Structures are given as structure tokens and as C-alpha cells.
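Why do we care about 3D structure at all? Because function follows from shape, and shape follows, mostly, from sequence. That is the central idea of this module. The next example makes it concrete: a single protein chain, its amino acid sequence, and then its structure expressed as C-alpha cells.
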Amino acid sequence: MHHYRQALMRMRQGDSDRDIARSRLMGRRSAAAFRAMAVDRGWLADEGPLPDDEAIAGALVGPKRASTTVSSLAPLRDQIGAWFDQGVSGVVIHMALKREHGYTGSYSAVRRMLGTLKRETPPDATVRLVFVPGEAAQVDFGAGPLLADAAGVVRRTWAFVMTLCFSRHQYVEFVWDQTVATWLGCHRRAFEWFAAVPERLIIDNAKCAITKACVYDPQAQRSYADCAEGYGFRIDACPPHDPQKKGIVESGVKYLKGNFLPLRAFRDLADLNTQAKRWVLEEAGLRRHGTTGEAPLSRFPVERAAMRPLPAVAPDLGVWSQGSVHRDCHVQFERAYYSAPYTVIGKRLWLKASDGMVTLYDEHRAVAAHARADRPGMRRTVRDHLPPDARTFFAHDRSWCLVQAERIGPSCTELIAHLLADRVIERLRAVQGVLRLEKQYSSARLEAACARALAHESPFYRTVKTILAGGHDLLVAQATLPVVTPHSGRFARDAASLFAAPPTLQ
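And the structure:
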């Protein structure tokens, strides 16, 4: 309105429309129309102040002419307004009107109605968050480029970005996934990159960090809670569906995608991360930031001095999870199996997996610890975790049987070795049965029975048991065994002769 006031003042001073046009305030026709309007309102009188800008603007615009067109959706305005407040799209509203209210109009009418409602809705006010040095950092994931992994499979990468809120200096790392282990590892490397830790981290509600998203009572993942305790920062989770609370890192991810990724080629993930770190230090960190007006690296020393120092000993960033103990006394984790005592079968245990160890906890009591499996399907088993019968079964293997046989005697050793040497049938249970006869009889009698079975060329469990049950091992051994003439029939040899008493020596 300033040039209208200037034109009005010059008109009071006697300038013509041509003079006003020559001064480039407005054209001759506009000056003539404005002069006529000023005369009607008495603004050209020498006495009295000039009208204010609001009065001039009201005279120029004039009353708005009311529309004579009535929308066909006017009777349904309240219903459409309710759907608009709920965030329902115009296409869905149009379909609902046709289905529920028999509306036959076009989608354009719905769109015009929604435009009217949007203009009548007051815009949401926003407040820019201001942070002091070292107060906070914001963390987020963003989609990265497609790359081939070690197996040659093309996969999506993800950009982990941590941005310091005061200096806008950032840490960028591209990873293959968004698992808890990856999330924790990126935090460790980010803190080492800054050589300091901020007071709190503002994050969204990713499953690797927050197990229950809530405005007032969010629940952090147990692994992430241990990380926060170890490094001394606080977790500040944004309310659900409110990413504006971490707009700094959102802008940082957008800046990364728009300024780093285009027109670059990457051999593999290592080359991608190498180029990203160089870009942060040589380009992103040296640019004049649009909000702060300074380069992030020039503000970073001030922020670093206000941040927490790194702990003297890096905390153990173990991944916590829960699993049930199956009937085989094992818990499954990442497709590998770890044993637990048989007394906790059926219970749900906490499992903490670090880089090299896996520890099982029953409540707060550690019940088992294993070296971490290095491939899927691998079993880590402690024999003492198995039930007593199972421990006995696995303990009585071939080596144990040979040791027990040597303790009993040479004949028992020979018979056991003969059974174990069978290349067609597995005789381990028969060997265990022979050795078990020692408990019922004695080692001396078992040795004698084995000797008698070997003498009659029948080194089998049934033979040894029959000899002991009939007491044939107690008979006086003959000096020379009778020569048995072999026959071709399967049952030609008299089985009773194996256990007959030997003749009396003269």
C-alpha cells in the first residue's frame, strides 16, 4: 500500500495523473481511477491525515461478491468434514458417498469441497527446537543404494545417520540390515567417530530400539537400554507418527541422498562407506549450513567439549532375546542351538549374545555360557546339562567300553573288540550289555564267561549271558578242548555242547 499513499500525497500536492505516471508509481489509467475513488471518499482534502493502509486496501478490493453456486455436496458437508479431519483421502470419500449416500456427482465436486475445508482449517503452528552444545543427537535410518553382497546377491543397503543437534556434524555408515546387533554396532562406531557421547539420543520407534511405542511410557529394547547405561546417554523416543521431533536428522538423511549418492559408483559396501566418510569430512562438514549459517566442522569443537567423554572400558553391547528351552535341552538363537540344564526345560530364558559368547539367564541367574556358533545349525552342548540317563548313554561310547574291558581282563577285551569290529551291524548296545553284566555277577566271572564264549567261537552277548546264568563259567576249565567237526548245516552244531561240562582230567 506504500505506493498508493505516495500517489495520494502527490495528488494532494497538485500533481497530475501524467506526473504520477512519470514517477513510475502507477500508470495514467490506474492513477485516474485511484483519483476518482479518492475524491468520492474525501481523501484529497488538504486538511486531515492520510487514510491508513487498511482503509486503502479495503477500498481497492471492495466487498467480495457472494457465489451464487450451491455445491451438490452441501447437505453432506458435516460428514465430509468429519472424514477430512480423520485424514481420509478424497478418492475414498468419493467412493463412500456413492456407496452409502447414493451420490452420483463427480470426484471434482468432492475435491472442491475438500479444498474449501482445507482453506477454512487454520494452519498448524510449529516451533523450532533449539539445542545447546552437547545436549542431543538425532538418529535415523535411510534407504541406500543397491549393492551385491559377498555371495553376489544384489541387496538393499541402509544408511545409519547420527547428527549432532548443535553443530550438525554427522556420522554416516551404510549397513545391510537394521537388526539389533547392527544398531548397537553403529552406535559404538559413531561415538568413537565423535570421540564423545551426547547427553541424549532422539530416535524414532524402530523395533531394534523400542519394543513398545508410546507417547508417555515407551519401553526400550533391553540391549539398547544396556548400551545407554554403558555409554551414559538417555534414550528420547519420539511419539508415534511424529517424525518432526527429529527433523534435523531427517534433513540430514535427505541431504545425504540428494548430494552424496547421485552420480557416484561403488564397488562394494566397504568402498561405499569409505567414500561416505570422506564426503562427510571434505564436503558436508565444510559446507555453510542453511540453518546455523556456519560449517558443521567449525562448530563441532565447541560441541565436543560439552559432550560426555567415552568410557574407559567400552561396554559389552550384547544382544538380548528370549527363548524357550526345548525337550532336547537346547535354546535356539539365530538358527544355532545352545544347551541349558535339563531342570529348566520348558522355561523361557533370557539370552545375551555378544561377539564371542552366548550366556543364558534364568531370571537374573546365569545358567549356561557357550562360545558363539559360527554357522547356522551348529550345536553347542555341555554334557552336564543333559539328564543323568542321557549323560550315561553318551558317556558309554566305544572308547569307554574298551577301557572297561581292559580293566576286566584280556578275554573280555578280545570279545569286546570283536563285537566293535563288526562292519555290518552296530554292536555298541551289545557291548554295553556285556559290560553291564559285571554289576550282577563280578568281573572275574565275566572274564571267565568271555573266555568260554571265545573258546566255543560264539563271541555274542546272548552267549555270555547264558554262560553266566547257567553257572557254566564256574566249572573247571578243560586243558584241551575237544575238536568239533564242522558241518555244513546252519543248526548242525549242537548248541548244548557249548555249555557242557569238560571231561575229568586223568
